[in-house]
Amino acid sequence: MSMKLASLAAVATALAFSQAAFAASGTITVYTSQPNDQMAAVVAAFNKDHPEITVDVFRTGTTELMTKLEAEFTAGSTPADVMLIADAVAMTKLKNEGRLYAYADAPTAGLPEAVIDPDRTFFGTKLITTGIIYNTNLVKTAPVSWADLTAPDVAKSLIMPSPLYSGAAVIHVDTMVQQPEFGWKYYETLADAGAVAGQGNGTVVEAVARGEKAYGIIIEYMALNAKAKGSPVDFVFPKEGVSSITQPVAILKDSDNIDAAKVFVDWQIGKTAQEQSVGQGYFPILAGVNPPAGYPALDSLKIMSADPAKMLADDAANKQKFADLFGG
Fold it and tell me: What is the mean pLDDT of the segment spanning 278-295?
């Protein structure tokens, strides 16, 4: 290549880069179920790396978030560009409806295939497991299994999140009812003994930390974060196994700022965000990033398997069954 052609190529490359940088600016709106304080920290860290992109956040429980989104679709448009929710079933529904953008060249090196949608419309950002929280002032013998919660004196002081509100609860309930040793009989036993459902996982940790309930079903990081901050609680990874969610991130196909949304997705599955998620108490999914201090090695946990397609097909019926048992 001549010097002149090489110079022109360099100019063209620089121009393309500057155009891409210019394109990846402006504002994106993220709809999320991640707690407000955590999302504020996420946005601050993202803006440290990408000050050229403004991130607006709308946060609520996954079920309410999906209801809002469906209403906006019906009205003709949504301000959302990115979804970051603790519910692969809800993401699968959006994908099946043609609402998600296929990000074919997302930088997924170091991520397990299991957290990547085969059509590359959504990507796991962390691993969240569900287990048992208990109040250490009220409980002298810690439970070790899901079965322990069915004892009448335990169940009557048990609270759980509702799948009518929490995406994590959707995954957990749908996983449990797919297990032959549990099924709906497990939840019927809990309901008959006086167990109750709150709304999201926040209501569970608050009730157990205050001593209003002795036991709860909850995602692990909320319990372990509360313990680290001095609440009289501890957490158990039950011996039969835990349900798991990956808090996937996705770009809506009709986003008016795809380029900036891609930058946000890239950052979410990159090392900086993964290390931040560890600091917030999550299991990371990126190879080479260690889990939070005090957490068991991920490969030491038994993770219960469940069929996402069956979860989606049974979603409405499962929510109705849960509501029949615990109210809604």
Answer: 88
pTM recorded for the entire structure: 0.72
CA distance 59 to 142: 34
| pLDDT reading at 293 higher than 60 | yes
Tell me how far apart the terminal alpha carbons of the chain are, to the nearest angstrom. 70
* pLDDT on residue 23: 58
Q: Edge-to-edge strands of the sheet including 53-59?
A: 53-59, 26-32, 82-84, 249-251, 122-123
- Helix 258-268 to helix 271-279 angle (10° resolution) is 60
